[in-house]
Amino acid sequence: MKFFTLFNKDEGSRPIGFLRRYNILPFATMIMVLGGLSAHNYFSQKSVLLKQLETDNINLVHSFHAALTRFETIRKTVNLQVLVRNISLELEIFEFRYLDRNGIIINSMFQDEIGRTFDRPGFRENLQKPDELGKFYKDNRDMTPILAISYPVYAKNELAGIIDLAVDISDLNYMENDLRNAAVRHMQRDIRNLLKAIAGSVTTSLAVYETLDYYDFLRNFTATSNNLKQISILAPDGTIELSSDFLLVNSTANIDNPARIFRGMFMYDRGQPVYRITAPLPNMSHGGGHEHTLLMQVNASEYARNTRSLLMTAIATTLAGILYAVLIAYSIYQVNMQNVRQERDRLEKEVEARTKEIKQLSNTDPLTGLSSRRYLEEQMGVEFKRAVRYDHSLSMLMVDLDHFKKINDTLGHLAGDKVLSEVGRRLGKTIRETDFIGRYGGEEFVVILPETPTSDAAQIADKMRELIAERPVFFEGRPINVTVSIGVAELCDSMTTYEEVFHNADKALYTSKENGRNRITCFNPAQILRPT
Amino acid sequence: MGKNSGKIIIVALLTALACLLVPQYSLAADERIQDELSDPSPTFNPLRKALGNKTYDHAMKSGKYRYTGNAKCRLCHREFFVGRKKDPHIYSYERLVATKHQKNKRCLGCHTTGYNVESGFISFKKTPILIGVQCEGCHGPGSEHVRLHAKDASPFAIPRIGGTKKRKDNKEIKGGFLVGADKPKIIKRMCLSCHTKRWGHSFPRTAHDFQAAYNLYKTPLPGDDDSD
């Protein structure tokens, strides 16, 4: 309600005025609240979108990591895998390993030792002296006596790797010496034949190994994943070691700190909206020795589009809300303004009516309801001028109650008032529509008769006298006999003011009083005419 | 160097202990051998005895079960392989050699792996990898087990990120053994088919408690100083 009254204060100003004065505060609050709500909505929705993007990309990183591990495993064990499987499961061989030239186990029948350094003393000794490779030696592994060989594998005339192969010879202990030596020779021959066959297979595998390229893998992974734009693998100093984009290799990636945890960020790269992910790549076998960081760029144009439409919606909502509020406020203001105008019109009319009433009251004698002396004189002036201009006749009667002082003195002022009002009423009944009657003062009444010569005026006056005298006025049940004396005067050509007519009428009245009251007298400059 | 010298001392002590014990046992063993050889109901096939004729015949007819030798077991259960190397079972053939009974059919049933069973031990020359009581000596032929688990637990399975592998139907693969760890009653019968009253039924290491001895062999390293 206070809100409405605020508008009322602005009565008469221009419509926009209500914004300027008292209502700037609620409006500012409203705009702030609307804007705040929209902004909150926008930011929360945006963070949901970002969270969604992050979740999707964590999954992407996981799938990439799985694919990379699989790729590396395949790369590491290609063909050798089948070889080791067949040898360890199908043949009576105690141990079989393939090692690189530094003695690191590339593949083995024991999964848990892949990637470790093979450190059997006999093998380490052979490794020190490359000439000794390919010779048999005896060892004791897992509490079992074995015959072992470190067989070199060459690729492009270089030592590519070493096959470590061992056979169980514990059963030889139960043989005679001669038999045992023969058995060992047989065994060694068989093993050499086997190893020659294996070496060919290993060489083939190595050739395949060389052709399995990380670049191809990254490029294929990028090509087959939706939205994925680029994958790079970084060294700790930020240098791009591998990338799906060949041109980026060996350049430095523009990231501050290679991430040790998953980190995603929305950004613009060369004008394109992208989501950049950095994540650690543990256990990657490429380039060994240091940790690697994964850097992915995912096409985030959908996110950018959604964010933009969210922003638009928020702004539109705010503007629509404000516009709506302004419209409502404006219409409320207009309704109030209309009410104010109607109220003002009503008040003006009332004032006018009241003024008229007051004016009428001042023109009327309160006791008798006839015109007051002031109004009577006004009218007398008007009628006098009209009669003079158009050369019409104008008569005036002066009526006076007989012995009114006696009524006042004997019966009281209330009785006098009653008599006056009754006489006024009776006199008012006798006049015509165009005539004026007024109380001139005390017990005197004046009647103006326009367009009336003295003869007609005398008839009217006599009718009045009869009407007053024919029956008494009753006051508190008591009859009071009242009579009036009347003086009649007429306008003459020589007169310049109405007062002269008045004066003549007064003289005629005086004559009536002198002649015994209850009679009329017409003014005659020479003699006072008596009625017949 | 300290570690090696420690080992040497232990080996020397064990040798000394063996020298003290062997004369007594050899004397006792002689009596038991005589007793065994005169027994009218010999144990030729402990596997048949443990499983019962019906199950045994059915299993052997299927052709799925063949002996593989403990080198295959070692591929996945290396700790058990090493543990059993410290256990007398694996050296049971040596006892026969020492008492010159290594060709006695009556003894080979319990002192080798799968004697009298198809694809089991035949002779030292033909099947040297099955001498002694190996893993399969108690659990039965292992070929089905290797076949079932080669893909899952082989060194060539591609490692997964996080979590161990479960089969799609969420069921454990059955062991594939005739005398598997999931059948304790049959295992115990298997034990007792060779460990008769005459041969080590007293289980001295666990104070003559068979159940305790049985539990001991669930671990990779049951101990290395038992002799019976």
Characterise this structure.
The complex is a heterodimer of chains A (532) and B (228). By secondary structure, chain A is of the alpha+beta class. Chain A has 3 domains: 79-211, 2-Layer Sandwich (Beta-Lactamase), CATH 3.30.450; 214-305, Beta-Lactamase (2-Layer Sandwich), CATH 3.30.450.20; 373-522, Alpha-Beta Plaits. In chain A, 51% of the residues lie in helices and 21% in strands. Chain A is built from 13 helices and 17 strands. Chain A has helices at residues 2-8, 17-20, 24-77, 80-90, 121-128, 177-211, 214-224, 301-363, 373-390, 404-411, 413-430, 454-470, 498-514, and strands spanning 95-100, 105-108, 136-141, 144-155, 158-168, 228-234, 240-243, 263-269, 272-281, 292-299, 394-401, 436-441, 444-450, 473-475, 478-480, 484-490, 520-522. Chain B contains 11 helices and no strands. Chain B has helices spanning 2-37, 46-51, 53-62, 70-76, 78-85, 92-98, 105-111, 135-139, 143-153, 184-194, 210-216. Chain B starts with a helix and ends in a 12-residue tail after the last helix. The relative contact order of chain B is 0.13. Chain A binds chain B through residues 62, 65-66, 69-70, 73-74, 77, 81, 84-85, 88-89, 92-94, 108-111, 114, 142-144, 168, 171, 174, and chain B through 69, 71-72, 74-75, 78, 81-82, 85-86, 93, 97, 124, 128-129, 131, 146, 150, 154-161.
Mean pLDDT across the residues of chain B is: 77
Mean pLDDT of chain A: 82
Structural class of chain B: mainly alpha
Structural class of chain A: alpha+beta
Rg of chain B, rounded, reads 19 Å
Greatest interface (CB-CB under 8 A), with counts per chain: A-B, 27 and 26 residues
SSE topology string of chain B: HHHHHHHHHHH
Largest sheet of chain B: none
Shape designation of chain A? rod-shaped
- Strand segment count of chain B: 0
- Order of strands across the biggest sheet of chain A? 2-1-5-4-3
* CATH superfamily membership of the largest domain in chain A: Reverse transcriptase/Diguanylate cyclase domain
Helix-strand sequence of chain A: HHHHEEHEEEHHEEEEEHHEHHEEHEEEHE
